[in-house]
Structures are given as structure tokens and as C-alpha cells.
Design brief:
By secondary structure, this protein is of the alpha+beta class. It has 2 domains: 2-83, no CATH class; 94-300, Fumarylacetoacetate hydrolase, domain 2 (Alpha-Beta Complex). Helix content is 20%, strand content 31%. The strands form 3 sheets. Strands 1, 2, 3, 4, 5, 6, 7, 8, 11, 12, 14 and 17 form a 12-stranded mixed beta sheet that branches. Helix 1 packs across helix 3. The protein is globular and about 60 Å long. The two termini are 35 Å apart.
């Protein structure tokens, strides 16, 4: 299942996308047609918090639609709705792992910059924006806006002190994040938060792919294009710290909750890594592709 948050007629809905990613089924609208009741929450966090109960309810609804012989009645063309970020407003900061690919650590420094322990920073919830949305250029505060394509993990159930062997049991699914970064602010403040937390600098989506559809998240091709040019091309098998270890480290003394988002790090090829650097310009189009998920596309404000 691929879960989306969409907007139609100024209202937000949780839905599922068909196998071809061309149509969307609005859960509550369809459930109301079936039973007269709205049985689903219209916030993704609340749906995720229900765990397997939510998945079973959705599967039951999908089976009903399939056997009704009226699939065209209930599925909408995806172009008739606006895709938002799957979790439009996270309840807490997005967890981000820094320098999780050796080549990326090297392009921004030297062998001494390859971390021995998981390196974590965060982005504010106000950074989140959806697929095909415009990313503000923030020219009043930065002239070094950079892209970072990343696989993101969505936590599915509450846990603390999670062991690596059990970590993937706590995952709901996976999505894509573009960790857009103001490099000059990052350097100026000697911390990552301000340079990582400008409004709209966390494009996310286009959907959350349930974990049942991804056999091994530590073995997915990832690619970033800017104006059609490949800038980043790697595989999550090159993680320094695999997802299981990241979850275990984060949860060692801190409770992870349903709907928490973990960005797993970006591979080599960021704009700052080029000589001379190739920072984003107004009008640039960014496309992040992650195998088994899809493509997240956004454009820098002109």
C-alpha cells in the first residue's frame, strides 16, 4: 500500500494510491459510501498510530472496492487532487542522520570526517512541504541553497530501548525527503538547525510506501537530478549506519512515536561537494528518485 495525504476542495484526506500511481482512493469518502460512516482519521499520524488495525481496515475496504465492480466510481485520477506531504505537519522535529555515506563525508571534508557514531540533527516541522511544491529561495538570508536526496523512515509504533534485531518491526513505511540546506547559515552558526530549518526546505513524499512492499530498505537505489542532470547516484547499501542501528541509537533513551520521521542521510554529489560549488538557483528543478518508492519533484522559487 502507498498512503497519501491529499487536498480536495480545501479539505485534507488520507488515501491510498493504486499500483500504477495514477489513481487515489480517499478512505473516508469510500467508507462512507460503503457503510454511511467515516471510520478513518483524516490525519496520517492518527492512522499510523492504529498500526495493524489500520492496515487491516484499509485492506478490507480495498477488497470491497475490488469486488464491487465499481472501481472507477471510487478511485479518482490523481491529477484531480493535490498531493501534500504524507505527514504535512509532523508532531516533532524530523530526525536527520548526517554523513551516513563515506563518499559524502569525504566530499565535505576528509577521512577524519567519517563518523564513528550516528550523527543526528533535526529540521523544524515548519520545513515540511509536499511533492511538486515550490521551495522558497530565501535569497534574503542565503545564497548557498543546496539539495540532499534521502530515504526517510516513518516510525509505526511507540518504543524506547529498541534492539537492532527488532528495529524494523517499529517501522510503518518509507518515503523520500529532500534535506534542502543553506550551507552558509550552517557554517555561520556552527550548528545545523538554522541552516536546515528554513521554511519549505523539507520536501517530502510523494507517498509513504508500507514496509510490506520493501523487502530490504538497506538496499535501494537513490538518485538526485537537478534540471535533468544526475548529481547523486548511490545505493542505501552504502550506509555507514543501517536503518536498524539508527533506530536503536535514537531510541536508546528517547521514546520514538508513531509518525516520527527519520531521514537516513544523503550520498555524495551535493552542490557544495563540487569544485566550484553548484548551489541551487531560482527556477531549478530537483528530482529525488528512490527505488520501490518513486520520485519527489520540487522547484526552487523564481
Amino acid at each position: 500500500m502507498r498512503f497519501v495525504t491529499v487536498q480536495q476542495n480545501h479539505e485534507n484526506f488520507v488515501g491510498v494510491v493504486d499500483a500504477e500511481n495514477k489513481k487515489v482512493l480517499l478512505l473516508n469518502t469510500t467508507e462512507e459510501a460503503r457503510t454511511g460512516n467515516k471510520a478513518f482519521s483524516d490525519t496520517m499520524q492518527e492512522c499510523i498510530a492504529l498500526g495493524d488495525t489500520f492496515i487491516d481496515q484499509v485492506q478490507n475496504l480495498l477488497d470491497w472496492v475490488e469486488t464491487s465492480g465499481k472501481t472507477e466510481t471510487y478511485y479518482l485520477p490523481i491529477g484531480e487532487v493535490t498531493l501534500l506531504a504524507p505527514i504535512p505537519r509532523p508532531s516533532k522535529n524530523i530526525f536527520c542522520v548526517g554523513k551516513n555515506y563515506v563518499e559524502h563525508a569525504l566530499e565535505l571534508g576528509s577521512a577524519d570526517d567519517i563518523p564513528e557514531h550516528v550523527m543526528v540533527f533535526t529540521k523544524a516541522p515548519t520545513t515540511v512541504t509536499g511533492p511538486d511544491a515550490t521551495v522558497l529561495n530565501h535569497q534574503a538570508v542565503t545564497d548557498q541553497l543546496d539539495y540532499e536526496g534521502e530515504l526517510a523512515v516513518i516510525i509505526g509504533k511507540k518504543g524506547r530501548g529498541i534492539q537492532k534485531e527488532e528495529a524494523l518491526d517499529y517501522v510503518f513505511g518509507y518515503t523520500i525527503i529532500n534535506d534542502v540546506t543553506a550551507r552558509d547559515l550552517q557554517a555561520k552558526h556552527k550548528q545545523f538547525f538554522i541552516g536546515k530549518s528554513l521554511d519549505t526546505t523539507c520536501p517530502m513524499g510523494p507517498w509513504i510506501v508500507h514496509k510490506s512492499l520493501i523487502e530490504n530498505p538497506n538496499h535501494l537505489h537513490i538518485e538526485t537530478r537537478v534540471n535533468g542532470e544526475v548529481r547523486q547516484s548511490s545505493n542505501t547499501e552504502k550506509f555507514i549506519f543501517p536503518i536498524e542501528e539508527i533506530i536503536s541509537v535514537l531510541s536508546a533513551g528517547m521514546t520514538l512515536e508513531p509518525g516520527d520521521i527519520i531521514a537516513t542521510g544523503t550520498p555524495a554529489g551535493v552542490g557544495k561537494g563540487y569544485n566550484p560549488p553548484r548551489f541551487l538557483k531560482p527556477g531549478d528543478q530537483m528530482e529525488i528518485f528512490v527505488e520501490s518508492i518513486g520520485t519527489l519533484t520540487n522547484t526552487i522559487e523564481k
